[in-house]
Amino acid sequence: MTGVEDIKKILIKNKNSLLQELRQSKEAMSLIKKSTRTKLTGTEKDKIKIHLLDICKTIPSLAIFLLPGGTFLLPLLIKLIPDILPSAFRDQEENQSVTAPKEVQ
Q1: ∠27-92-1 over CA atoms, to 5°?
Q2: Cβ burial, residue 48 (10 Å; 0-12/13-18/19+)
């Protein structure tokens, strides 16, 4: 692939991850609203907990990205600490590594 095609592929992958994160945010907001009226089930509580943890992971990542040189530092931190990514991005990376063919040496 050429450099432009690689960049397009990465942008599409990140766009899909952002859309998934937005869908999860909408679901979490509806569950939080529901919790004001009724009691939530265990699975609903787990979904809210996971999403709140994702938000807590996103804020430091954004802060690092905004620092001078953060565009270079954030990918290095992701390699060192893969759990820094929100679940929408992490799930996609795990799925790709499972389905990607292994190179024969």
Answers
A1: 140
A2: middle
Residue-wise DSSP of 40-93: PPHHHHHHHHHHHHHHHHHHHHHHHHHSTTHHHHHHHHHHH-GGGS-HHHHHHH
Give the pLDDT of residue 75: 81
> With left for phi above 0 and alpha for psi between -120 and 50, is residue 83 left, alpha or beta?
alpha
pLDDT band at 54 (very low <50, low <70, confident <90, very high): confident
Which tokens in the block code for residue 52?
Answer: 């709140």
> Is the four-CA dihedral 35, 38, 41, 43 of positive or negative sign?
negative
Model pTM score = 0.59
Where in the chain are the domains? 3-85
* Number of residues that this document lists for the chain: 105
Q: Is 25 exposed, middle or buried (0-12, 13-18, 19+ CB in 10 A)?
A: middle
> Comparing 99 with 68, which gets the higher pLDDT?
68
Average pLDDT, the chain: 77
